[in-house]
Structure formats: C-alpha cells, structure tokens
C-alpha cells in the first residue's frame, strides 16, 4: 500500500522513543532529525523524470515508512527517525539513500541530491493530492521545472516559548549555514553564476525568507494567523521561513539549505545546527537576549550565501563587514565547540569540517567537474553516485 505523506508533514511522522527521551532529559541532550529532498532523473540522460510513483512501487520495507512525496512528480523525500548520536543519524540517512537508489534503479531512473535540476528538461507535474493542486492553482508556476530540493534539520526544544527565543538567536547564523550547503550552480543546462540557484527560485514564494524577530510565542501565532488571512499561505505547513517551530512536535526546524550531495555534508550541517541550538539554550539560561539584526541585512547575507557559497564572502553580523565565508563558518564552529563536545560530536565534526574545507561545497565540486569534463551529464552522473554513497 503506497503511503501518501507529503513534504510538509515529513518530519512529523516519527515520535521520540521513550528510552531516547529519558536519556535526553537526564543528560540534557538534544535530539536530531533530518529531512532530505531529491530529484529524480532519467537512467541515462540528465533530464528530470516523473517517476515518483514507480519509485514507491519498488521501495523496500526497511525504508518505506521514511519516504514521502514532495511537490513535484520528479521529487521524493526522506525523513530520518530522531537520533541522539551522529553515528545513528549517519546510518539512518545512509540506509535511506541506499534504499532510494535501489528503488530508483528498479524504476528505471536515478535519485540525485541537488538543489535544482541541472539539465534542461520538461516541466513536470505536481503530485496528485488535493493540497498540491490547490497550491498550484493559487500560486501558479512559482516552483518551475522539476522542483527544488532542500535539507531540513530538526532539533528538540523544551517548549514553544523557548523555541521562539531560539529562532531569534538563530537568525544571524543561518546565512553561513546556507552557504555551507550551496549545491545548485546549474539550472536548465547553464551556469547561473550562483552557488545556490535553488535559493533564488525558492524566494519567489510569498512566505520564504528570514524568520522575523519574534516577541513571544503568541506573536509567532499572530503572524501565522495574519499570513493565513492574507492568502499568502494555505495552511501552517506553508510557513517557509528559514527557521520555524514544528507544528506537531517540540522542535525547531532549520530549512534554508540545499540538499547536500554527500552525507558528510548533511551530517556536518546537523551537528553544527544542534550545537548552535544547544549554545543558544545556554545563552538563554544566562539571561542573554538575541540581537535584533535588521531584516534587510539578513536578506543581504542570505543573498551572498546563495551567490558565493563558502568560496566567496559573507557578512559578519557583529561588525556588518564583509569577511571570507569560510572564516565565518570557522567562527561558528569555534562558538559551538563546547556543545559539540558535550554531545560527543566534536571529533567527527572536526573531521567533516576538514573534508568540507578540502573539497568545497557541492556547488564548487560541480563546477570543478564541469571544467574537467565539459558536460552537464557528467555532473549529474557524479551527483547520482555521491547520493548513493559511491562517489
């Protein structure tokens, strides 16, 4: 029986096991969960294909419950179960990617972790659900081509009021995390000159952008009600701020990044995100207030992240000056180092940071490969191998 869970409910389908919840509470640890969205491409050519229903027909029982439909028929999504250990998260995500790759092969296609379709191809249709048809009718062609694919990280928080304050503290750091995930330099067969073209396409939706500064959980609810009343979103699942509260579980969800080509990049993002939330929780305990960074400056920083990735510059929110993006990511790493250590993540996160520094973002790797081979098809071949863990 095919499951019809959709993208905006993906991370809400799994509760935290009792023993994990007890350990998290007793040791003051934060749980992690990750959603990844993927593009489906032809088995030979680099173009996107509408193969999601065939994919579901071939999913193994070990991954079926972790897989959901996304907006377009050329997309598919997974959601990991909650985890305390980075190793457990890596294993869960690897199992899901391997299962998807096997199902794709059986369905005559490939699954690719990339932010936007690199090669030219047909505009695909939305998945056949009433909600997605309503979205298409209301918002038209805001998601062009084959769809846009991101990574969403969920981190537990004790209550919604604390979660709102965590969202405020996250705001200055999210552009540099976005830069680290940049993985969509090509779109429709051409180089867009951006590291994350998905980010630029995604911002056309009316509720996409930096999370506003929030006075309270009540304020958060008021803004949602206002957006619903305006018609800018059909339901709370369409609140596409770069960080938001889960509608069903006690987590904050960080959702501004491209899907990453390799699990190394995904797990590093998850580790840094959890450590950042943990560090913020300590700042809240000490009575600190989040800086109210101007919305215009945040938008500028997110634009720089989309354009430059980690290979260029971004904005130091403390000084409002341009600095090398990699240096800002290192600054974030140093800031959250105690929480990485407390959660047992420091050693692995250090290794993954070194790997990211040596090979660059997904966007940088795609451009390097294109310069060597000269064909978008070679880039898509590499992405498919990397997604399945073979590159």
Automatic annotation (TrEMBL):
Record-level GO BP terms: modified amino acid biosynthetic process
GO molecular function list: ATP binding; glutamate-cysteine ligase activity
Enzymatic reactions: L-cysteine + L-glutamate + ATP = gamma-L-glutamyl-L-cysteine + ADP + phosphate + H(+)
UniProt entry tagged with the keyword Protein biosynthesis: no
Enzyme Commission no: 6.3.2.2
InterPro entries found in the cross-reference section: GCL_type2/YbdK_subfam, GCS2, Gln_synth/guanido_kin_cat_dom, YbdK
Classification via Pfam families: GCS2 (PF04107)
SUPFAM superfamilies referenced in this protein's UniProt entry, alphabetically: Glutamine synthetase/guanido kinase (SSF55931)
Summary of the function given for this chain in its UniProt record: ATP-dependent carboxylate-amine ligase which exhibits weak glutamate--cysteine ligase activity.
Name this protein carries in UniProt: Putative glutamate--cysteine ligase 2
């Amino acid at each position: 029986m095919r499951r019809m869970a959709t993208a905006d409910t993906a991370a809400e389908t799994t509760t935290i096991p009792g023993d994990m919840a007890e350990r998290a509470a007793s040791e003051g640890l934060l749980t992690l969960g990750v959603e990844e969205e993927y593009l489906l491409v032809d088995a030979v050519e680099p173009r996107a294909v509408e193969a999601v229903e065939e994919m579901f027909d071939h999913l193994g029982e070990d991954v079926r419950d972790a897989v959901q439909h996304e907006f377009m028929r050329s997309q598919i999504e997974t959601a990991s179960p909650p985890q305390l250990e980075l190793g457990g998260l890596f294993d869960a995500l690897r199992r899901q990617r391997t299962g998807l790759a096997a199902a794709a092969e059986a369905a005559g296609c490939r699954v690719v972790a990339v932010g936007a379709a690199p090669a030219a191809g047909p505009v695909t249709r939305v998945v056949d659900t009433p909600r997605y048809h309503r979205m298409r009718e209301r918002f038209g062609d805001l998601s062009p081509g084959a769809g846009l694919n991101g990574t969403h990280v969920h981190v537990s928080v004790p209550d919604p009021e604390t979660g709102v304050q965590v969202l405020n503290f996250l705001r200055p750091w999210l552009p540099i995390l976005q830069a680290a995930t940049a993985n969509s330099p090509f779109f429709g067969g051409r180089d867009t000159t951006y590291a994350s073209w998905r980010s630029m396409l995604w911002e056309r939706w009316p509720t996409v952008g930096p999370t506003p500064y929030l006075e309270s959980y009540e304020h958060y609810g008021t803004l949602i009600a206002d957006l619903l009343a305006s018609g800018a979103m059909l339901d709370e699942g369409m609140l596409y701020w770069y960080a938001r509260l889960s509608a069903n579980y006690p987590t904050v969800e960080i959702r501004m990044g491209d899907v990453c080509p390799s699990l190394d990049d995904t797990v590093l993002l998850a580790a840094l995100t959890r450590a950042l939330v943990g560090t913020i929780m300590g700042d809240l305990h000490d009575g600190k207030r989040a800086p109210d960074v101007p919305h215009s400056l945040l938008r500028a920083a997110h634009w720089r992240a989309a354009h430059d990735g980690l290979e260029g510059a971004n904005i130091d929110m403390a000084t409002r000056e341009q600095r090398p993006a990699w240096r800002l990511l290192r600054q974030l790493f140093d800031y959250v180092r105690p929480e990485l250590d407390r959660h047992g993540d420091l050693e692995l996160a250090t290794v993954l940071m070194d790997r990211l520094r040596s090979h660059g973002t997904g966007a940088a790797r795609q451009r390097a490969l294109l310069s060597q081979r000269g064909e978008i098809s070679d880039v898509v071949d590499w992405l498919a191998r990397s997604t399945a863990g073979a590159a």
